[in-house]
């Protein structure tokens, strides 16, 4: 004991020291949080994450500001997290399968998808499908196959980028069916859908940004990639019904830079989980037919680790390289 220092004062000082982390944690967040969406505005992920950001911001007491950074197949958010962002909880980004896949398809891996990020929460996935121009020659999956086989190298399809989940799924389908297709990537799913409606490309294989154009009669949906038929588009068969044992929903979540404080992660997770299950966010997900794919922090990290192993095996099997 310090000379001349009463015991009650020492105990008070010790208690203050123990409380300091809690006090510091309680101050998070004390300024706006940046959420990077690595796509242009207007797509399904952008809409879902903007909704979640708005709802979470109310409970956090600080605005969650969405910043769109499109390009590089949706990996610019991950690049920012690993090269510029501080692990203080004020910059997070969408984590999706193209980010997990990228280290295995480039010569110089830019990150370790498991250990170079702080994975916070798994949220939702996409309704993928293939749509064609409604007044074009293709009316069904059978027509699609027949046209491709009769016209090798002439049937074009578009996606939101090279080496995205939808691109790789199309490559796998083409291999299984013995087709020679031409990939025409666009920057975003909504741009890809519009390109098909305008006749620039023959088909779009992507998430449900095509849905409004299907509802409006400009596009025809010929298949979906979920395990069951979509309630919104019950006439479109699943890949399983068409003879391919494949379910593709590409779950995504949110992550931050490596080394974030667990207390900060917990605050973010809890606010984002509440936002995900909020009726307003559920309404946005229903608008785009996005399936719920919730994982807590530990569960999401485990999912990313499992998926990284899968992506590594697939890249090796298909000899994928984009550089």
From TrEMBL:
UniProt keyword terms in alphabetical order: Signal
Family annotation (CDD domains): PBP2_Bug_TTT
Organism: Siccirubricoccus deserti
Descriptive protein name: Tripartite tricarboxylate transporter substrate binding protein
Family named by the database record: Belongs to the UPF0065 (bug) family.
Alphabetized PANTHER family for the sequence: BLR1237 PROTEIN, TRICARBOXYLATE-BINDING PROTEIN
Pfam families (alphabetical): TctC
Signal recorded as keyword: yes
Taxonomic lineage: Bacteria, Pseudomonadati, Pseudomonadota, Alphaproteobacteria, Acetobacterales
Domain of life: Bacteria
Entry's transmembrane regions: none
Segment forming the signal sequence: 1-24
Ranges in a coiled coil: none
InterPro entries, A to Z: BUG (IPR005064), Bug_dom1 (IPR042100)
